[in-house]
Amino acid sequence: MRHPKSIVLSGALSALIVMTLGLARDVRVANGLLILYTKHGEDHLSLAQKLFDEISDRDTFTYTIMITAHARLGPPALGLRLLSRMLLEEGGLRPNRFTLSAALKCCAASQDGELARQIHAWVLRNGVSDVVLGNSIMDSYAKCGWFGRAWRVFDSLAGDARDAVSWNIMMRACARGGDAAGAVGLFERSPVRDVASWNTIISGRMRDGFDGDALGLLRRMAETGTGFNGFTFSMALTLVDAYAKCGSLEDAHKVFVGASKRNVVLWGSTINAYALHGRGGEAVRLFEEMLRENVRPNEACFVAVLSACSHSGMVEEGRKYFKLMREECEVCASVEHYVCMVDLFGRAGLVEEAKEFICENGIAEVGVVWKALLFACQARGDREMARWAYEQMVRIRADDDGAYVSFSNVLSSSGRWEEAAEVRALMRGRGVRKRWSWSWLESKEEEMREFSGR
């Protein structure tokens, strides 16, 4: 397969030959080259324009190619100028529905509702309207903020002439205009719904803060057998993350269950939701269910399940999944995976095993893994291993305040006040400052704020 750049270069050479030999008189050859240029982005649009100017016998297709290119790549005003030029200068050329649809997209992009109205009038005078063109007119009016005219076009289409696109355009128009009830009403009246219809109404309910309605709609969508697309999955993920952050894991799980077709990202996000809230057993059960359904875990899924094992003290399960990741799933371990494993061993009191794990895996120069071990030692009061981790940490990153503060706290908690003071003095001497963290508490009356150190 040839590289796109080589195709464009050969196209440039062909265009040079066409212009040099005067072959631009053959409109079919020239149109083919215009398509080649306009498919390869705005960088080649100027070349397309030069070739367009050389074509001696332009036809409707020639203009449609260029107007469509400007609708897609910009600037839209140039596309509208080409339409005017076609109508005024090229006597006898009539735009077809594809030309007009492209021009209407230019109107929408440039917010030119008046020109959209003129194109609409031309369509009515010349009797070239159909449902596709009607949808384009409606969409252009809606995007220009001319909602009244958009509604009139919608109403003018006979019931059986409206397709899913017609209903979707008006639903989006209502949502953009702040008419949530109108959007919902259109959705419920619509006799034809595709994935875009569901996405439009679900995203609108989420945007207006009606997450419960959005969840119910996701369930209904799954029940109809409508396949999820990338945007639907992103909305489901947003709901899962939002519910998880609020601690509402039951609602997060309802979203997950409602998505009859689940991709690996949705699996990973739901597993992570349980992991974050210390419900490791449920996270592991969900991970096992994913494996049974032959969904191949990605890096994020393994981070989530290893974190769940770490927070729930599931050492053997953590070992098993780390081995599965590297040997069967062939996922390369990242720093996050290593940190999860060190944290897993550290929390379980297996600090020697954590140290061996760091050394055996060639990550002794990665400061964050020593920090994970140091924090685990602080939690367990293991002074000697904490000292080792602290020394490795400051060797790698002498400016990390967490190393000094954590080790100082370990010493203080074991009554080694002088040594703790020495660590703090060393920290000050190296110009390392303790970073402060902020917490917010909101109530109906006021917002409260406090800060604290490590």
From TrEMBL:
<feature type="repeat" description="PPR">
    <location>
        <begin position="163"/>
        <end position="197"/>
    </location>
</feature>
<dbReference type="GO" id="GO:0003723">
    <property type="term" value="F:RNA binding"/>
</dbReference>
<feature type="repeat" description="PPR">
    <location>
        <begin position="263"/>
        <end position="297"/>
    </location>
</feature>
<dbReference type="InterPro" id="IPR011990">
    <property type="entry name" value="TPR-like_helical_dom_sf"/>
</dbReference>
<dbReference type="Pfam" id="PF20431">
    <property type="entry name" value="E_motif"/>
</dbReference>
<dbReference type="InterPro" id="IPR002885">
    <property type="entry name" value="PPR_rpt"/>
</dbReference>
<feature type="signal peptide">
    <location>
        <begin position="1"/>
        <end position="24"/>
    </location>
</feature>
<dbReference type="Pfam" id="PF13041">
    <property type="entry name" value="PPR_2"/>
</dbReference>
<keyword id="KW-0732">Signal</keyword>
<protein>
    <submittedName>
        <fullName>Pentatricopeptide repeat-containing protein</fullName>
    </submittedName>
</protein>
<dbReference type="GO" id="GO:0009451">
    <property type="term" value="P:RNA modification"/>
</dbReference>
<dbReference type="Pfam" id="PF01535">
    <property type="entry name" value="PPR"/>
</dbReference>
<dbReference type="InterPro" id="IPR046848">
    <property type="entry name" value="E_motif"/>
</dbReference>
<dbReference type="InterPro" id="IPR046960">
    <property type="entry name" value="PPR_At4g14850-like_plant"/>
</dbReference>
<keyword id="KW-0677">Repeat</keyword>
